[in-house]
UniProtKB/TrEMBL annotation, chain A:
Residues 5-301 form the FAD/NAD(P)-binding domain. The keyword Nuclease does not apply. Residues 320-404 form the Reductase C-terminal domain. InterPro entries: FAD-oxidoreductase/Apoptosis (IPR050446), FAD/NAD-bd_sf (IPR036188), FAD/NAD-binding_dom (IPR023753), FAD/NAD-linked_Rdtase_dimer_sf (IPR016156), Reductase_C (IPR028202). Keywords: FAD, Flavoprotein, Oxidoreductase. This is Pyridine nucleotide-disulfide oxidoreductase. It comes from the Bacteria. Its cofactor is FAD.
TrEMBL record, chain B:
Its cofactor is [2Fe-2S] cluster. The lineage of its organism: Bacteria, Pseudomonadati, Pseudomonadota, Alphaproteobacteria, Hyphomicrobiales. SUPFAM superfamilies: 2Fe-2S ferredoxin-like. It comes from the Bacteria. This is Ferredoxin. GO terms for molecular function: 2 iron, 2 sulfur cluster binding; electron transfer activity; metal ion binding. The keyword Iron-sulfur applies. GO terms for cellular component: cytosol. GO terms for biological process: P450-containing electron transport chain. Keywords: 2Fe-2S, Iron, Iron-sulfur, Metal-binding.
């Protein structure tokens, strides 16, 4: 047998790459090195069902031992890769040992961005990435009187919803002028703010946290730049993620807040591929974008596997994402960032609506709440470059599925 | 533990034992049964864990929620009267002998 293909990282992207390599016909060894001690697991429930104790850890496993044996994929959990050596086609493990490889995929993920302010390392200050983080936060929610969430993004808001379900007093401090500012339209931000207010979460925007105040090593309060102080015995920090691109950078691969890849998951070194949260995608117009989502991880992993087998499988599908908060299932497809018009279907007051976003008359994104059918339809329309008119969207009697059947021009 | 038979897309029959409270999707994917993608991990958000439910115990299944029905409208393979999302079916003792047939494609 020849050298193995080595995958650094045992999350969604690394696993998808391994699985796709087998499907594409790679016969030699596949080795996955994962820094965590677990088999690949689903992270989205860490801020939802697992945090609430509704889902046991075992049920988060994406693929277990039987799968790895059957597919002849060697999973080396709790192994940290300390360097990659592109010229030598090898990697170095933290015990100093080397392993040669026929191909390399970096799927090293991301880590929570740190606050970097006074008190950020007090006991009772936590961020959420791993199973252990979630278990720790869940246990602390049970003991806490006052939970303060720093950051009104998806993870922060999901943790806030979970803490409210447990009956805790919850304050969300967001530095920008609205919740979900980086990812959602103003209309969705407003809806989400109302949703949380209705469940008793006190969300404060334009709140820039200046320091965390402790007592005997444990956090007691969060202070903002405008002089306010919020009592806290649990602080959850959700202020974004940083790509783990250090291995690539040390090896001289092009990086810019992530390992730079093309649509086929190629890095600047033609023999090395990267997928998932650790990447920054270079688009045709030269722009760079980072996506942190399950879909991106899985699709880039598949593209990396195809490229290793000599096939171009560019990933161009519309991005999609979901978030569950209280009884609202929020699903997003495409983007609303550049929209010049929006049209509504359903009722925001009844927690059952879809917002269709247009730019220059062309559909660019759809956000839905508790309308999963519209979400799936939106993904199909976006992927086929099909656009309903604003009038069609606004007319509840018009069946948008007709657009797919007819194949209307874009 | 309840014994369930999965029929993979290529026709192979795989019997697995599933603990109460696990979903068909969780048990099948973690144990390496072919034919389920389950990209969203069981949030009823992706429609890639579609299956066809067969056998007498199917009568004991709770009916699908509105969310599941909407997602089933969007599965890639043919939607049949016995189509379900395997992430929405939780194991219980009265499902012993259930047969779960995988479609040819999920995405």
């Amino acid at each position: 047998m020849g050298e193995p293909i080595i995958i650094v990282g045992a999350g969604q992207a690394g696993l998808a790459a391994a699985e796709a390599l087998r499907a594409e016909g790679w016969r030699d060894e596949i080795v996955i090195y994962g820094a965590e001690k677990h088999a690949p697991y689903n992270r989205p429930p860490l801020s939802k069902g697992y945090l609430l104790g509704e889902t046991p850890a075992a049920q988060l496993t994406i693929r277990g031992a039987e799968f790895f044996a059957k597919k002849r994929i060697e999973l080396c959990a709790a192994h940290t890769v300390s360097a990659i050596e592109p010229d030598a086609h090898s990697i170095v493990l933290d015990d100093g040992s080397r392993r040669q490889c026929a191909g390399l995929v970096l799927a090293t993920g991301s880590r929570p961005r740190e606050l970097g302010i006074e008190g950020a390392r007090l006991s009772g200050v936590a961020s959420l990435r791993t199973l252990e983080d979630s278990a720790e936060i869940g246990a602390r929610i049970d003991r806490a009187d006052n939970v303060v969430v720093i950051g009104g993004g998806f993870i922060g808001l999901e943790v806030a919803a979970a803490a409210r379900k447990r009956g805790r007093s919850v304050i969300v401090l967001e530095a920008m002028d609205r919740l979900l500012a980086r990812v959602a339209s103003p209309a969705v931000s407003e809806y989400v703010a109302r949703l949380h207010a209705g469940h008793g979460v006190h969300a404060i925007t334009n709140a820039k946290v200046s320091r965390l105040v402790g007592e005997n090593g444990s956090v007691r309060a969060v202070e903002t730049a405008d002089g306010r102080s919020f009592p806290a015995d649990l602080v959850v920090v959700g202020v974004g993620a940083v790509a783990n691109d250090e291995l690539a950078r040390s090896a001289g691969l092009a990086c810019d807040r992530g390992v730079i890849v093309d649509a086929c998951s190629r890095t600047s070194d033609p023999a090395i591929f990267a997928a998932g949260d650790c990447t920054a995608r270079r688009h045709g117009d030269g722009a760079l974008s980072r996506l942190e989502s399950v879909q991106n991880a899985v699709e880039q992993g598949k593209s990396a596997a195809a490229a290793l087998m000599g096939k171009d499988r560019p990933f161009h599908a519309a991005p999609w994402f979901w978030s569950d908060q209280y009884d609202a299932k929020l699903q997003m497809a495409g983007t609303s960032a550049q929209a010049d018009k929006a049209a509504l279907r359903g009722s925001m007051a009844q927690n059952h609506f879809s917002l269709f976003y247009f730019r220059g008359g062309k559909l660019i994104g759809v956000d839905t709440v508790n309308r999963p059918g519209d979400h799936m339809l939106a993904r199909k329309l976006l992927d086929a470059s099909l656009s309903p008119t604003i009038e069609q969207v606004s007319n509840p009697d018009f069946d948008l599925k007709n657009l797919l059947a007819v194949g209307a021009p874009a | 533990m309840t014994r369930i038979t999965f029929i993979e897309p290529q026709g192979a029959e795989v019997e697995i034992d599933i603990a109460d409270g696990w979903t068909l999707m969780q048990a099948a994917t973690s144990q390496g049964v072919e034919g389920i993608e389950a990209e969203c991990g069981g949030s009823c958000a992706c429609a890639t864990c579609h299956c066809y439910i067969e056998g007498e115990p199917a009568a004991h299944l709770p009916t699908p929620t509105q969310t599941e029905l909407e997602m089933l409208d969007n599965v890639v393979a043919a939607r049949l009267p016995n189509s379900r999302l395997s992430c929405q079916i939780k194991m219980a003792p009265d499902l012993e002998g259930l047969i779960v047939r995988m479609p040819e494609a999920q995405s």
